[in-house]
Amino acid sequence: MNKTDPQEIYEKIKEEARSWVDARQEKPLVMVGTATCGLAAGALQVKEDFLKEIENKGLDAEVIEVGCIGHCYAEPLAIIAKPGFPPVCYGHLDDGLVHRLVEDFLAGDDPSYEYAMAALERNDEFPTFEDFPRGVYEEKLILEHCGFTDFSKIESYVARDGYSALAKALSGDPGLVLEEVKEANLRGRGGAGFPAGKKWEACLNNGEDEKYIICNGDEGDPGAFMDRSVLESDPHLVLEGMILCAYAVGAKQGYLYIRAEYPRAVEHTRKAIEQAREKGFLGSSILGTDFSFDLEVFQGSGAFICGEATALVNSMEGRTGMPESRPPRLVQQGFRGKPTVLNNVKTFAYVPLIIGRGAEWFKGIGNPESPGTAVFSLVGKINNTGLVEVPMGTTLRQLIEEVGDGLPEGSAFKAVQIGGPSGGCLPESSLDVPIDFDSLHEAGAIMGSGGLVVMDQEDCMVSVARFFLEFTQHESCGKCTFCRLGTKHMLDILTDITRGEGDLQTLQFLKELSEDVRDGSLCNLGRTAPNPVLTTLRYFYDEYRAHVEEGRCPALVCRDLILYYIKPSKCSKLCNVCVGSCPTEAIYTRDDGLKAIDQEKCVKCDNCRKACPTEYDAVLRLSPPVLPDEKERKAK
Amino acid sequence: MLQLLKGEKEEILACVKEVLGENSKTHENLVPILQQVQKKLGYLPALAMDKIAEGLQVPAVDIYGLATFYNQFRLNPPGKHEVKVCMGTACYMAGGDITLESFERRMEIKEGETSVDRYYSLDRVACVGCCTLAPVAVIDDEVEGKVTPTRVDGIMLALEEDREDNTGGNSGPGEGADHE
């Protein structure tokens, strides 16, 4: 069919890339993780330090930037690959450690294992990440190379067989790509889990000539950052997935919709597109075939609702991002009125792996209904915060206790919030739920964006529900009455509850209103916005009751229901720490030299409690907010 | 609304003209046009929105609707020092609201506002992506972790010192605005 064989052309490109990579590996390479999380922890300074130290020593070594390896708790991170040694990863870097590594490892031959986190290749000297407890459970597919590959060079991607799935697909019929994706039962990773193959097929069968592919990178959940990480750290994986999709459905133009708040993701993706064009993976006559396809980045402007497919398309067309009722579905009538396939970043990222390694391989991971892996950003009261990728079917307990290394000392597990503002809070009893689209839905949460927040006894469930609702209420586009007014009213009720106002009837009303908002909204923002409220009401009803019936916040969080009190019997005359810590000068020294708090001035910032030395622990939070002597009086 | 500074009007007009010249005037380009204007000016002044509406021949309310719908667009000018407090899930749970309140108290402005002398602006942002450092604030693009109210005082002290260093000199912040 084709005049030239795409495989042949590809092999040539790959050979060049291989020799480029080999040449680079001849001298020591320092890879500093500079994804957004690394930058925040000071990665650029670390890079500067490495450059300076290397120059001072007159060494011949290269320092490059790489993405995120998912071990956010240890940022800033760097990997040192020196010929003759396994590549080693070091965490918690500062100028002192950099100095030492350059002197001992780069200049000398001592890898300083005492400061290393892990090696990246199996060796006889030092354990690898797979030997970590989390390594047993983790299975990295789309995050496999994130943070280990030079995102700024297409050669790094090609040298490890990148774009080989494309070359393979182009040598065959487009129908084969579709068959493989359908066979693999790849479900959309945007949250809802709709089978990607079905979507593509519907678009293909639409008949129209003009079709579009859109990659949804409008990750708006406050607390999820895996899409950003993939785009920042390994952009070509997503591009290849999109090109394969375009080949399967016959599209000529595609867009990556990326939040403008992710400037680095935008920059890296744009650069990757340029490089792919140069090598002939994008543009006209891809790899010598008659298939043409091009990509562009569209910068989203920060609206949570634009993660919804129809709203996203509206916003790309220059309108406010309001969802439309479906049908028509996007695959029938999408961007510019043409059939459009819209999938999440992660969904596209799986495609090259499925085409390259086959549907059977993919189905061997995870469970039959939800094959593949799930990516989570672990945050909250957990030791190993960061990005993790585990096979579907892993239980929440394994994820939290093994992969995340459990809760910090002194924290007792109370709840886990999954799926961001659209998800739910699950209690201890739900921890053995396997992670897949259907099981989580049954338990009341959703897979959603993959944000996972672990909470302990110091987190108030009412306050958490209020936080998420405040977010969705603010992000409601205002189209549907229930979502626009209902969420506002729910927020008002929740605010009242955090102040101890209301009664059991209020709680009943809140529940009914939640159900109405869920049933009366058009899109998933409104339909899922009540989830955090409904699940906390279901699993933590007692906490709500304590707020309205006793005016007490059991977690000692809701500031209208607590007061700060310095217990005279614990306070010391010799210590003044709390006085200085108070931002409003509310703490004074009593006539007897002990400290006390002027309740009028106190803003309940918790500073004094943190400042009070552990041997005294004299600052207490009391809920309900009644000072002890008054309490006694009341009891009488 | 803050008053326009001297010469700012001319700057706005020139900027809008330039951006409109670089883009085809289609409705589909509206969001990119607004993004480019904001990138150049730091915010979307009412005047700029009026001029863009004229240029694209759409009602000004459409532009205003877009600018207020999307979180990216800001309608007031950024301060010389921009402080953003993270309100992602992890930061909220670690007391991000307390941090925000502390800044509000010290700057004497509310979240989303700019001080009259345009020295400070205070905003909330969704997740910055460094949840381990919660609560987090971004001060002029520098991420600060574990920002307790005491740390807020420290940050404010540094920013105030910077103001004192500059007032004796030439182009101090807020020149031309109400400034004492």
Layout of helices and strands, plus pairs?
The complex is a heterodimer of chains A (636) and B (180).
Chain A: H1 6-24, E1 29-33, H2 36-40, H3 43-57, E2 62-66, E3 78-81, E4 88-90, H4 95-107, E5 116-119, H5 133-137, H6 154-159, H7 164-170, H8 174-183, H9 196-204, E6 212-217, H10 226-233, H11 235-249, E7 253-259, H12 263-279, E8 294-300, H13 309-316, E9 340-344, H14 345-357, H15 359-363, E10 373-380, E11 386-391, H16 396-403, E12 413-418, E13 424-427, H17 437-443, E14 451-456, H18 461-475, H19 481-498, H20 504-519, H21 524-528, H22 531-539, H23 541-550, E15 563-566, H24 577-581, E16 587-589, E17 595-597, H25 607-611, E18 619-622, H26 628-635
Parallel strand pairs in A: 1-2, 6-7, 6-9, 7-8, 10-14
Antiparallel strand pairs in A: 1-3, 3-4, 4-5, 10-11, 12-13, 12-14, 15-18, 16-17
Chain B: H1 8-22, H2 30-41, H3 46-56, H4 60-69, E1 81-86, H5 89-93, H6 96-107, E2 113-114, E3 120-125, E4 137-139, E5 142-144, H7 149-167
Parallel strand pairs in B: 1-3
Antiparallel strand pairs in B: 1-4, 2-3, 4-5
Helix pairs in contact in B: 1-2, 1-3, 2-3, 3-4, 6-7
Word description of this protein:
The complex is a heterodimer of chains A (636) and B (180). Helix content of chain A is 41%, strand content 14%. Chain A is an alpha/beta fold and 636 residues long. Chain A has five domains: 6-135, Glutaredoxin, CATH 3.40.30.10; 162-363, Rossmann fold, CATH 3.40.50; 373-459, Roll (Ubiquitin-like (UB roll)); 462-550, Up-down Bundle (de novo design (two linked rop proteins)); 562-635, Alpha-Beta Plaits (2-Layer Sandwich), CATH 3.30.70. The N and C termini of chain A lie far apart (95 Å). In chain B, a hairpin with a 2-residue loop joins strand 4 (137-139) and strand 5 (142-144). A five-stranded mixed beta sheet of chain B has the order 2-3-1-4-5, with helices on one face. Chain B has 180 residues and is of the alpha+beta class. Chain B folds into two domains: 8-69; 81-167, Glutaredoxin, CATH 3.40.30.10. Chain B has helices at residues 8-22, 30-41, 46-56, 60-69, 89-93, 96-107, 149-167, and strands spanning 81-86, 113-114, 120-125, 137-139, 142-144. The relative contact order of chain B is 0.13. Chain B is 47% helix and 11% strand. The longest helix of chain B has 19 residues, at 149-167. In chain B, helix 1 runs antiparallel to helix 2 (30-41), helix 2 runs antiparallel to helix 3 (46-56) and helix 3 packs across helix 4 (60-69). Chain B is built from seven helices and five strands; from the N terminus they run ααααβααββββα. The interface between A and B is large, with 53 and 44 residues.
